[in-house]
Fold this sequence. Notes:
Layout: E1 24-30, H1 37-50, E2 55-58, H2 70-76, H3 85-101, E3 106-110, H4 116-121, H5 126-139, E4 144-151, H6 154-165, H7 167-178, H8 189-208, E5 213-218, H9 224-239
Parallel strand pairs: 1-3, 1-4, 2-3, 4-5
Helix pairs in contact: 1-9, 3-5, 6-7, 6-8
Amino acid sequence: MTSTHPTKDSTDPTAPTRPEGPTHLIAVAGNSPGVGKSTLCRSLADWMRGTGATVDHFQEADILTRPAFRPVAEEFAGGAHSVRPETLIAATHAYVTEARAAGIDVLVTDALIPFVPSLVAWGHDEPAIARFLREVATAVEPAQVTLVYMEDDPATALRRAVDREGPDWENWYLTKLAASPGTRSVHDLPSAAAHLRHETALTHRLLTATPWHVLTVNVADLDALRTAQHVRDHLAAALDIKG
């Protein structure tokens, strides 16, 4: 996946500076690979552009290339294969601050905030992640945050991901989890699904303590089109978007 940054849709540091204004951050996260995060993000970004808003679509792979997240990419590649919470917080603050200064109206992020899967994998416990989320909530102020949390039964979603991506992806995913301190119990798809169910319950507990508006979407009985329509209807009401 490659990242592109058109002038209208991203935080281009060479673009003329516009006065800071309200920015709405639509953070899309999921409880498992295969729930349709990236598809929903693309749909929401296109829809918001259609309303006349300036939109920055932060794709999942962009964390390796965006200037604000360069310290994150460098720290992760430095040998520990983890990132300090304070580095994530500083990068997130820089990203949102730069977007507001550039006059971006809406940020649509794919698997960025709330960072829970990464923090769990790196071995952080629930109190530490709760502290992290409180600090992230402060870091993104005064942006208005809506977190769309997509979920399905992890066993079903993982099978969908494997069918889509192939056996090489399955091997990569299981190896990645097994190599991380917080997910070393994972050795096959059933143990990965068990871990993701635990992580889902943890995420729900953590998100209830944030000031963000959280929209949980169970995608088990929804296709991509109906999922996108459901989320658009909710956001239209929340943001007072007509049509």
